[in-house]
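Q: Structure for this?
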Amino acid sequence: MAEIGRVRIRIPSSIKAGEIVRARVLVIHPMEIVQRKDGKPVDKNYQFINRVVVTYQDKEIAQFETTQSISENPFFTFAFKATEPGVLRVTFLDTHGGKYEGTADIKFS
Amino acid sequence: MDRRMMDTGTTRRTVLRAIGALSVAGLVGPLGVPRAARAQGNLANLGPEEPVDVTMKRLFAGRPIKDGSSAITIDLPLIAENGAVVPISVDVNAPMTPQSYVKAIYIVSDKNRRPLNAKFTLTPAAGQAFVGTNLRLGESTDVRAVVEMSDGTLLQAKREVKVTVGGCGG
């Protein structure tokens, strides 16, 4: 599998000022699921993403709290209002302290 | 917080479990998880395994939930062949202005062992209350989207999905 933590953000190729834009973001991550032994969950330090922070022009616009019931290689779509050119940044945090970040430049055409 | 709970005679396990529940509820961030819990495994920090009505009670504390099926559109396949990856998107037809906006969208799968899939916290800057992701579903289940508005109103919509092969491993 590709390396853990690679983030890909896709935005429409042309964005107009003031438009509401839908962005799609994907991160390569195993999102470990709880293992069970004799019908009981095994207590171990599972690695999965439990928080996603979306910022635009360094202002937080959304935050997602995720659990293990999100698929491997989590994928999210969300909307934001492109008011000014700036950077859209999506940060993924996992339970092992991993921090994975992806950015997209918002430019108007 | 820890000290207060210790004083009331609760055990370490219940404290950890409470912290886990809080972090799901968004009161304590992932960074608020104490080191000791990590060394031992983080099972206690996950949402507890529980039936869906317990989850709903824990999240919303019995607040009235209105039917929001006219405002909430859930896009979900009728039949999911692979429960490990079930695409869903939730679109709420509601204004996103600083006065009135969608504060949070919860995705809950009724029959998953840990029913809460995800909580999406939004701000008016999002412009539109729309989120999408891929879910893991253990079996055929109702999936509900609960929307919390900025004034505290709760709306809910439900959709059923048939899952051919469960996606939760064991």
